[in-house]
Amino acid sequence: MQGKRILLIVGGGVAAYKSLEFVRCLKERGASVRAILTKGGAEFVTPLSLSVLTEEKALTDLFDLKDEAEIGHIRLAREADLVVVAPATADLLAKMAHGLADDLATAVLLATDKQVLAVPAMNVRMWEHPATRRNMATLRADGIAFVGPEEGEMACGEYGLGRMAEPEAILAAIERFFGEKPVATSLRARGMPLYGRKVLITSGPTQEPIDPVRYIANRSSGKQGHALARAAAELGAEVTLVSGPVTLPDPEGVKVVRVDTAHEMLAATLAALPADIAICAAAVADWRAADEALQKLKKQPDGSGPSLKLAANPDILATIAKPSENRPRLVVGFAAETENLIENAKGKRLRKGADWIVANDVWPGTGAMGGDRTQVHLITSAGVEDWPPMSKDEMAARLLARAADALSQIRSAAE
Question: Which of 26, 185, 359, 401 falls between 20 and 30 A from 346, CA-CA?
């Protein structure tokens, strides 16, 4: 983080006091920090405190004549390597989601072309309110990254999700953004949304032998499944990745179980249960050769090939989604279709018993199968969400963030 320029926006909440410790940690790692203090934030920490720690003037006023003589809010928006909003209150998140720019902090957020990392902090009921959920979905779609919130006791005396993430968790996210290897990851994971949760992910194709040298497979590269495993690990989860044959490196911090066939993948996934979340992203072959030949099949004298009898493979998604004591609280499947995408995906969700289905068009012209980008539709009991085109890493981060939110709501409802 040496030499990186961080612009910190401090919102108005009790958790604002954590921003002082966060600044100290950034400075210890060699980063330079400029701070913007909102009017609400100034009720909890003083401009002088931030100025002393950052060794820069803490900024508060959009209409400061001296600073704005050089269009200061634009300069601030451009100079930073990363913009961090901590704490990001419900009010500040709402303004960000709706593009408001009525003070220095929101004007900078609207003008910046740099990555924004928001650290939500608010009462649990405010966090769970539908308006906040809508704002979070909008901000994620706009590319805003998030750390937290954490679960715990709040200043108001209530308990639940809404506590601001600890400085160590925010630092870990910043290190990942700059491509630096985090130190003491296991400790920092405590502040992550999926800390202490088990996530099971399947990835890649399966290969169903016809004879000793031939098999039935598909064009799946495993890129999406492996991206999902990385995203889950980055949110603090204990991740098991059951992967078919792929040429990708193992995601860091993930337990990888390698398999070849659908039967092997089913056995590995069942062995990995119980889990809190299961995401079946593997492109499992629907059929296998009913009778695998012990020797290489030969052409007939007339040049014709042998007849091949097929048998159905086990349905891994339906098996995991079946009600049982080991059923994950959130089961997500994928629907790769070449026609009638939404209709087929909706039907699959109901037939398989999955909570969500991620539908993607794999017609060859899309480049989704084996490519680095995708466009998906999230099918839930509430309806269909159309997501814009994005990289598979971006899609994975967005889906896992949604899954973490959903899991917290399921947990709250159970309590």
Answer: 401
Tally of domains within the chain:
2
Beta bridge partners of 95: none
Q: Which is catalytic among the residues 52, 155, 156, 311?
A: 156
**pLDDT at position 72, please?**
59
C-alpha span between 204 and 247 (Å, rounded): 10
Residues 205 and 187 grouped into a single domain: no
Q: Note the pLDDT of residue 309.
A: 93
- Report the pLDDT value the prediction gives residue 184, as an integer from 0 to 100: 40
Instruction: Report yes or no on 300 lying in a domain.
Output: no
Query: Does 327 lie in the same domain as 232?
Result: yes
Output the pLDDT for position 76: 81
pLDDT at position 146, please? 86
CB-CB contact of 82 with 177 (8 Å): yes
Alpha carbons within 13 angstroms on the beta-carbon side of residue 218 total 21
* pTM for this prediction: 0.59
Q: Can 156 be counted among the known catalytic residues?
A: yes
Domain that holds residue 49: 5-191
Same domain assignment for residues 316 and 375: yes
3-state secondary structure of 27: helix
Question: Which tokens sit at 150?
Answer: 């954490």
* Tokens at 157, concatenated: 């005396």
Residue 64 is predicted with a pLDDT of 61
pLDDT at 223: 94
State residue 134 phi and psi, 5-degree precision.
-65, -45
CATH number at 221 reads 3.40.50.10300
CB count, 10 Å around CB of 34? 20
Quickly tell me which residue has 């940690």 as its tokens: 25
**Of 143, 133, 153, 60, nearest to 90 (Cα)?**
133
* Structural domain contains residue 301: no
Task: Report how far residue 399's alpha carbon sits from residue 6's, in angstroms, rounded to the nearest whole number.
Answer: 27
Question: Which CB contacts under 8 angstroms, 24+ apart, belong to 387-390?
Answer: 387/141, 388/141
> Hey, which residues does 373 pair with through a beta bridge?
391
The amino acid at 76: L
* Cα three-residue angle 381-386-392, rounded to 5 degrees: 105
Of residues 213, 198, 210, 245, the one with CA closest to residue 226: 245
One domain, residues 380 and 280:
yes
Residue whose tokens read 């800390």: 195
- Residues 216 and 194 sit within 8 Å (Cβ to Cβ): no
pLDDT for the residue numbered 113? 86
**67 and 152 fall within a common domain:** yes
